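Subject: for your reference before the review

Hello V.,

The reviewers asked for a structural picture of the protein, and I figured it would be easier to keep everything in one thread rather than splitting it across files. Below is the amino acid sequence we used in the manuscript, unchanged from the supplementary table.
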Amino acid sequence: MRLSIILLLTTFYSYLTVSKAPVKLNNKPALEIITDEDKFPVPSDNIGRLFYIQRTSNANTLIYELNAPGGHVDEQNPMHVYWLRYAEKGQKEELSYIQRKFAYGLITKRLANDQYDVRFVSYKKFPLLLMKANDGKYHIFATIEQKQMMLNRVFVKIEGGSFWLPNVVYVELRGTDQTTGREIIQRFKP
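And here is what came back from the structure prediction:
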């Protein structure tokens, strides 16, 4: 319920409409298009990107990337979160204070062996784990149906409701099974 309220609150602050057309940057197609309910741009691959979040409210995308200046993970702030404002000009923009503290920001706690417990400030009961995978690179992991997946994308479908209580139809997680390489898709209603 709190996640629903926070998502709606941040939707109000982002105030932009959905871009239904393929996004172009510098007059060049920059993105692939995926289909859920509407069409949403897929961010270009970024070496530090761990996963991204999209919502039905607009095409703007939240990027969660590794914060590793000089090749070393910042222990106090291991992840950097920002917007790609596709509904505008595709520009990068930092989260507002309200978005960072009440909706899309993260709480991180360093564990042993360069691992970090990661939680959304708006949905603390869903644990994520930041750690190195078999490929030697950092990834974010979620445990779904007793399987650990490398999280790639989160999609939040919202239909109606009110400003304070939106109707979150589902949250969809997409990732990769580290052992088999197969895609895992899981939906749940928070």
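For the response letter, the relevant points are probably these. Residues 2-181 form one domain. The chain has one domain: 2-181.

Happy to draft the paragraph if you're swamped.

O.
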